[in-house]
Amino acid sequence: MQWTLVIPLKPLTQAKSRLADTADDGVRPGLALAFAQDTVSAALACAAVADVAVVTDDERAGRELSALGARIVPDTPRGGLNAALAHGAAVVREIRPGAPVAALNADLPALRPAELAVVLGAAGEFPRAFLADAAALGTTLLAAAGDRELRPAFGIDSRSRHRASGATELLLAGVDSVRQDVDTGDDLRTALALGVGRHTAAASARLPIPGS
Predict the structure, then answer these.
(1) Strand residues in the chain grouped as ranges (E)
(2) What span, in angstroms and rounded, lies between the C-alpha atoms of 129 and 120?
């Protein structure tokens, strides 16, 4: 089964405000872009992924991620994260009717293609499925079979909301890189310990990482 991944990315100047303890206003946009670059690179290297669509209005991000091979979808709804994801899923299904679609966070800098393949393989067994984040409160991936709507409910307590929506929670071991999103300095330290991609490694090299 070949998946299309939809990755949302807000304007870089608005991204990662919770990293203020680690990176100042001038650094965070580049760090957010580096996370997305490593996420997209790993996703495109995954054998289970046919293509990646990034929903964003950020010109710099669009340019850089397009150069990696991602399709850029303008965020025309401009109605927040879930509206962007629903729009992105609709756009890619116009191109690939009946394709299985998965929403993936843009802040997974330690993402491993093989681990992503395990998660997508498990997700393919269900009409809709999701993977909780490392904190066990949020969601890093939400998948929908080709005949199902994505119905994203990301945000605060999205694990509970996706479960309540009828999506099956994937209880998998050994996929830490797919769970480890980065919102705080401590998250970044954990991701660095897992081993991040080259863009994040370069962008974070001079940062004072909490606990390091």
Answers:
(1) 3-8, 49-55, 71-73, 101-104, 128-132, 139-144, 168-169
(2) 9
Contact yes or no for 142/126 (Cβ under 8 A): no
Per-residue pLDDT tens for 82-108?
Answer: 999 999 999 999 999 999 999 999 999
Indicate the residue type of 20: A
* 3-class secondary structure per residue, 106-119: CCCCCCCHHHHHHH
Tokens in use for 85?
Answer: 């994801």
Indicate whether 64 pLDDT > 50. yes
- Write out the two tokens for 42: 């790993």
Contacts of 180 (CB under 8 A, 6+ apart): 108, 110, 133, 134, 187, 190, 191, 194
pLDDT band at residue 210, thresholds of 50, 70 and 90? Answer: very low
- What's the Cα-to-Cα distance from 109 to each of 41, 163, 168, rounded to whole Å? 10, 25, 25
- As a whole number of angstroms, the distance between CA 108 and CA 130 comes to 15
Nearest to 92, CA basis, from 81, 103, 106: 103
* Domains of the chain and any CATH numbers: 3-203 (3.90.550.10)
